[in-house]
Amino acid sequence: ALPGPLAQEYPDKITHSLDSSASVAQFSPNGQLLAAGRGDDGTVEIWDLHTYRVMRRLEGHARGVVSVAWSRNSRYLLTSSKDFTCAVWDLAVEGRTACKRDTVWFPSPLTGAVFHPRTSHVILATLSTHECVLVDLRKPRKQGRWYLYNAEEGYSKSTGVTSARFTPDGQYVWAGTAAGDLMIFDTASKMLSPAANVDSPAPAPGADGAAPNGLPKITVHTSASASPHAPNGSLPPTTPTPAGADPGAEVDADAEGEGEGEGGIAIEHIYSDQIGRSAWTGLSWSPDGECLLAGSADKGSHKLFIWYRSGRGGLAKVLEDRGVGVEDVAWHPYLPLIASVSNNGRINLWSALRKENWSAFAPGFEELEENIDYEEREDEFDIVRALSSTPHSHLSCILT
Q1: Cα-flanking dihedrals φ and ψ of residue 359, to 5°?
Q2: Which residues pair with 164 in a beta bridge?
Q3: Is residue 399 part of a domain?
């Protein structure tokens, strides 16, 4: 059931723990399934959130899985692995390996991959060599693969990209680099957008005094109100689409010409752990886009930080569990439910405990602070049967 309008917007307690060897996890867009990639043997587990049991196992990677991503209709699953491959699984087909629709090979191990927001035939992959690759699965290998880099300045294909995501409309690709910069590429032209290079402020030192390694994680909320924006409210200018080279042309035919204007990208908030000064292992948005979730990279504790996006971006809550650190985090698409993956592979599900309001159904209901011993009367629950005034006549009717 959907939460009420006045329900708590973020979880506060672990309600279930899933025994697994996962390294990454993601909720399906319909909110019914949880995909967990194992980092030891390359197996992918599909958990049913109603029974909290594994309903399916996908076997097709030779090494550990580093990312899982769902298509928007919750039918296809994209997995990337250290075995140099990405796999697209069709969950409508039965079988552990028969449901593998596509397998994409790369020249190096992968660090992540995501679907295009509008089609499962276009994917975006990042490699361990800090390369960002856009792939159209409908075209031959040599024609349907583009490396995203700044060609105008003569950069090599390895531009230090550590993480990349599509914008909600699929028109742009946001790429974070190891130097802490944010680059924005046009999906149609495969070129760097004119208002694209965003220099991040100097990163705060980590717990050991060293600066974190650039931008290892990027997250983009799916709603338009929470999507990255320029100071004038528009996205970076749109580059005209060249003929015959557009895996994203089907994305938004009406978007051409929109978002024109000058200006760069404004930094809205800078979130950090002011006490522990730790880095982050995962990022995720709340369903309404008003809260940001991050997992602490501190190996000695299991901490999840939740910040508000509105106002000054203050800290809303810190969820903490004893034990090992956090590997990955994910927020349910429409419920106050969070999945956090521990270093030991266990998946913790955090949710908000609801307090039932019985007085809304029974006006005379009163909630007791303490138990009251009720003394039962001797004849309170005795069953008294009414005897007929003429039992013999009734009996005679039965016998005749």
Answers
A1: -65, -20
A2: 175
A3: no
d(Cα 111, Cα 175) in Å, to the nearest integer?
13
Kindly state whether residue 122 falls inside one of the protein's structural domains: yes
Q: For residue 356, count other CB atoms closer than 10 A to its CB.
A: 8
CATH number at residue 102: 2.130.10.10
Contact between 26 and 72 under an 8 Å Cβ cutoff? The reply is: no
Query: 347 has which bridge partners?
Result: 18, 341
Its sign, for the CA torsion 130, 131, 136, 139, is negative
**Residue for token pair 């994305």:** 251
Query: What does the alpha-carbon distance between residue 275 and residue 140 come to, in Å, rounded to a whole number?
Result: 51
> Which tens digits make up the pLDDT trace of 83-96?
999 999 999 988 77
Those residues whose C-beta lies under 8 Å from the C-beta of residue 231, and which sit 6 or more positions away, are: 263, 264, 266
d(CA 134, CA 45): 26
For 342-397, write each residue's pLDDT tens digit. Answer: 999 999 999 987 766 666 667 777 777 778 788 888 888 887 776 555 555 544 44
Please check whether residue 331 is in contact with residue 309, taking contact to mean a CB–CB distance below 8 angstroms: no
Any domain includes 393: no
Where in the sequence is the domain holding 318, given as residue range(s)?
Answer: 13-359
The count of domains in the chain is: 1
Distance of CA 255 to the CA centre of its chain: 26
Whole-angstrom CA distances from 56 to 34, 59, 81, 344 are: 11, 10, 19, 21
Helix then strand then coil, in percent of the chain rounded to 5, is: 5, 35, 60
Q: How many CB atoms lie within 10 A of CB 248?
A: 26
The pair of structure tokens assigned to 313 is: 């971006």
Is position 42 within any domain?
yes
Cβ-contact 165, 124 below 8 angstroms? yes
Q: Maximum CA pair distance of the chain?
A: 112
CA separation (Å) from 11 to 84, 277, 330, 345? 37, 24, 12, 21
> Is-above-0.85 flag for pTM?
no
CB 111 within 8 A of CB 66: yes
